[in-house]
Structure formats: structure tokens, C-alpha cells
Design goal:
Layout: E1 16-21, E2 24-31, E3 39-42, H1 54-61, E4 66-69, H2 85-98, E5 104-109, H3 111-122, E6 127-133, H4 146-159, H5 164-168, H6 174-186, H7 200-214, E7 228-233, H8 242-250, E8 255-259, H9 266-269, H10 271-283
Parallel strand pairs: 3-4, 3-5, 5-6, 6-7, 7-8
Antiparallel strand pairs: 1-2, 2-4
Keywords: Hydrolase
Protein name: Alpha/beta fold hydrolase
Organism: Nocardioides astragali
Length: about 280
């Protein structure tokens, strides 16, 4: 057990907290040493607090104050699920402001990376360092096709009594299947005070928001000045890998890591390599 004087550095043991602002209550967890700039995690489509890979969170929480949170209307957060990614970014700003932070680092995955980009467009001085994984730019080619891919893989998972993330995040070869099962198992390490699953209605709303984002005019990412780390697998079916390369071209000075023989969840499949890289980048 962690003593009362030592910070919790295991995501499985991170205390659940809430903060209420502007008519909504946001559920969040925090861990790691307090003080300095926190690392706020922006989560993916259909995800709750229980969907972060503890191997990545714990690596960063060894030296940094880490905060994960549920978007409005998802998991244990109240309020209405936002209809657009831009609105989700406004809600993220509400949450961060309610906690009293004027500067943060962001770790984001998939839809969370889209929300992070929209947040920086509106509040460029809020974010110091940025990690974008498994994501793409507003108006990116084929982002709007995520709806069809998602429903198809949910069906495939249902027929095989599997977790949809095994299909959506990982290749369906022997390596990918093993990585997917290992990832899903890690998500079960927290055994108490677990979050509520997303509702089907909330999932549909998020999918429509991503579709709108994919069909919108691009944002000007050349204005981004924060150091940015971009990562993905080389075979991302949800947010095509070429969009990570697109982000890399648009964000001046950004770093790009593409992991071989892996999909949307490449950072989870290669967590042993990626977690220390991400932790070092955010510590700089």
C-alpha cells in the first residue's frame, strides 16, 4: 500500500474525484506527485476513465501529476454529450479551468487528439507540450469513415464474444490478437470503484461528432508552437496512419513515431517502448 505521505503512482489505485462547473459534474482521477504543470489525458471514442492503459499512465505518473477525466455525459460525468468536437474542447477547457490550472501538458489518443487540437486552436497558451496518438487533423482524409469501421468491428466482436477494442485497435494476425487480449486484460487491473460504461446513445453522438470533424474545413495547425510528439501504428484502420504523417507535416518541429505491424492501438501494443519515450518527452 502507498503511505499517506507518498503520492499514488498506480492508476489502478488512483482516487476517483469530481468537480462541478457550469451545471455539469466531471468525474476524474489523479495520481503522481503534485506541483508543477499537470499532464491531462484526453480519452478516445466510447472511452471512460477505465480505458487508459495503466502501463502508459503509470510511467508518466512516476514523475508527473496526471489527471484523467470523463467528457460530459460519459461514464460518471453528468451533462449532455457534446454534438461536436469543438464543443467537447470547450468542455475540456471548463474542466481544466475548474481545477484551477492555467498551463497543462496533454496526452491524447484518437478522438482525444481531435479535441486537444480544437482546444489549442482556441486557447493556444494553455498547452505547453502535446502528445497526439492515433489521431488526425480536422478535415483529414477518410476520418469520417470511422463510423462504418466502428459499427462493423462492434458486430465482429459481438459475434466472437470479444471486446470491440481487440478488432478496432489491433491487427487480426497472431501478434495483434495477443496484444489485444493483453491490453484488454490490463484494463481490468483496477478492481474497485470502476467507471460506468458509455451508453449506446452517447457513442452514436460521439461518432457523429467525429464524422462532422472529418468533413469540416481544416484548422491552421501551423500556428501550434508547443513541442509535439505524434505516434501511431503503421496499419491504423480507424484513423488512417497517413493522417499521423499529415499532422507531422502540419505541426512545425513535431516528432513522429510509427510502430511496425500494429494498428490504431500501436502505442498500447508497443507500450514497453512507447511509455518511456512519452514520459521523457513530457518531462522535458
Amino acid at each position: 500500500m502507498t503511505s499517506s505521505t507518498e503520492p499514488v503512482t498506480s492508476y489502478a489505485e488512483a482516487p476517483a474525484r469530481t468537480v462541478t462547473t457550469k451545471g455539469a459534474t466531471y468525474a476524474y482521477r489523479e495520481l503522481g506527485p503534485r506541483g508543477g504543470i499537470p499532464v491531462v489525458f484526453f480519452v478516445h471514442l466510447a472511452a471512460t476513465l477505465d480505458n487508459w492503459d495503466p502501463r502508459i499512465v503509470d510511467a508518466i505518473a512516476k514523475t508527473r501529476h496526471v489527471i484523467t477525466f470523463d467528457q460530459r455525459g460519459v461514464g460518471a460525468s453528468t451533462g449532455k454529450v457534446p454534438d461536436t468536437i469543438e464543443e467537447a474542447a470547450d468542455h475540456a477547457h471548463e474542466f481544466i479551468t475548474a481545477l484551477g490550472f492555467e498551463k497543462i501538458d496533454i496526452f491524447s489518443f484518437s478522438m482525444g487528439g481531435m479535441i486537444a487540437q480544437d482546444l489549442i486552436v482556441k486557447h493556444p497558451d494553455l498547452v505547453r507540450r502535446l502528445v497526439l496518438t492515433g489521431t488526425g487533423p480536422r478535415g483529414g482524409k477518410d476520418i469520417d469513415k470511422v463510423v462504418g469501421v466502428t459499427y462493423w468491428d462492434i458486430l465482429r466482436a459481438t459475434l466472437t464474444r470479444s471486446d470491440p477494442k481487440e478488432f478496432l485497435f489491433f491487427n487480426r494476425d497472431a501478434t495483434g490478437k495477443a496484444a489485444g487480449k493483453a491490453f484488454v486484460k490490463r484494463l481490468q487491473e483496477r478492481t474497485t470503484d470502476r467507471d460506468q460504461d458509455i451508453t449506446l446513445k452517447a457513442l452514436r453522438t460521439q461518432l457523429k461528432a467525429i464524422q462532422k470533424y472529418g468533413r469540416s474545413a481544416p484548422s491552421d495547425l501551423s500556428t501550434f508552437t508547443q513541442p509535439t510528439l505524434i505516434a501511431n501504428g503503421d496499419n491504423d484502420r480507424m484513423v488512417p496512419t497517413v493522417l499521423s504523417e499529415d499532422l507531422h507535416r502540419r505541426i512545425t518541429g513535431s516528432q513522429l513515431i510509427i510502430y511496425p505491424n500494429s494498428g490504431h492501438g500501436g502505442i498500447f501494443q508497443f507500450h514497453e517502448k512507447f511509455a518511456p519515450v512519452a514520459a521523457e518527452f513530457l518531462a522535458a
